[in-house]
Write a structure and sequence with these properties.
Blueprint: H1 3-24, H2 28-55, H3 62-78, H4 83-106, H5 114-136, E1 141-142, E2 153-155, E3 158-160, H6 162-184, H7 186-196, H8 198-203, H9 208-234, E4 236-237, H10 241-245, H11 247-257, H12 262-281, H13 291-306
Antiparallel strand pairs: 1-4, 2-3
Length: 316
């Protein structure tokens, strides 16, 4: 059985089982709400997996790439920059932050133990949060939606807004583009090659460190997208918004899907989003304290007990 067929069968099987169970227990609305939340986790998890595949680093700064992008979006829109240009500017800021993180923090520590880079990425996150508090004060701010219309239509009595549709549509498009990029382009194949055989990649004349810069920029761009598409749904944000509310579920999504699998990041994000949605909407769980966080932990333990490499990850 080929890897692609195995991935498709596992992913399809898990999705089918989840949908059937939700319908059996009358939790169809949780499926819709979970897809929206899961789309955010998937975007952030994609960036986490990209960095891990390229350099073996668990990037704790991924959430702040998104938060910094939202701050940039807020500053640009409040200064009368058109919303479309403001989003582009915010994504550029996120990508530049990713490049600076790679160039100033990751590259000098390129040959250091991976745990050193993990701590360094956490330091970048803390520094970013400190700067956000310093310049922006520790208070909530409002940011407008790109598409303000609410309740475009209903599915299973769950209202879907245009902004939520935009988030889901963006995730689907990115999934297709990333699949084509890593399977059909020389640069994408080079990144995959560098993640699997860095020495051999260097021997054929491809700079692993340059590929690392590109990967960190793309990961930051994905974090930025998650921020500028998700935070307007909640309508308010503060320093460390994505680190506090999104990073841990996204890490869980990446591990559940398989830290070496981009399709796994998609699947893991949706699973975590749906599980959280079920935990907070199901009547039989309403008296359980911290049911959202607890449910994520339970799913993580179950998956890693049955399949330690994650649902779509490969064994070491």
């Amino acid at each position: 059985m080929t890897d692609r067929l195995r991935t498709a069968l596992i992913g399809g099987g898990v999705a089918l089982v989840v949908v059937v169970l939700l319908f059996i227990f009358g939790l169809q609305r949780a499926l819709i709400f979970g897809l929206v939340g899961g789309a955010t986790y998937s975007l952030v998890a994609l960036g986490l997996v990209l960095v891990y595949k390229s350099s073996g680093v668990f990037n704790f700064a991924q959430g702040e790439f998104g938060t910094v992008a939202v701050f940039a979006l807020f500053l640009l829109t409040t200064n009368d920059v058109p919303y479309g240009l403001a989003i582009i500017g915010a994504l550029v800021v996120a990508a530049v932050m990713g490049l600076l993180t790679e160039r100033l923090v990751v590259r000098p520590l390129f040959d250091a133990p991976r745990v050193t880079l993990l701590v360094a990425s956490a330091g970048v996150s803390l520094l970013a949060i400190g700067v956000e508090i310093w310049f922006g004060e520790a208070k909530l701010r409002n940011v407008d939606k790109a598409l303000p219309r609410q309740g475009r239509f209903k599915i299973f009595n769950a209202s879907i807004s245009d902004q939520e549709l935009l988030l889901i549509f963006t995730l689907i498009v990115l999934g297709v583009l990333l699949a084509l990029f890593f399977n059909r382009t020389n640069l994408g194949l080079a990144i995959l090659g560098a993640s699997q055989e860095p020495v051999a990649t260097e021997l054929v004349g491809i700079s692993v460190r340059r590929l690392s810069s590109f990967t960190w920029a793309i990961a930051a761009l994905l974090g930025g997208l998650a921020g500028v598409l998700t935070i307007p749904i909640a309508n308010s944000f503060g320093p460390g918004a994505l680190t506090a509310g999104v990073l841990i579920p996204s890490f869980t999504a990446a591990v559940v899907g398989g830290m070496t699998s981009l399709p796994g990041a998609f699947l893991g994000g949706i699973i975590v989003g749906v599980v959280q949605s079920v935990a907070v909407t199901a009547d039989f769980l309403e008296d359980v304290p911290g049911q959202s966080s607890l449910s994520v932990f339970v799913v993580l333990v179950i998956v890693l007990t049955i399949r330690p490499q994650g649902l779509l990850g490969k064994s070491a």
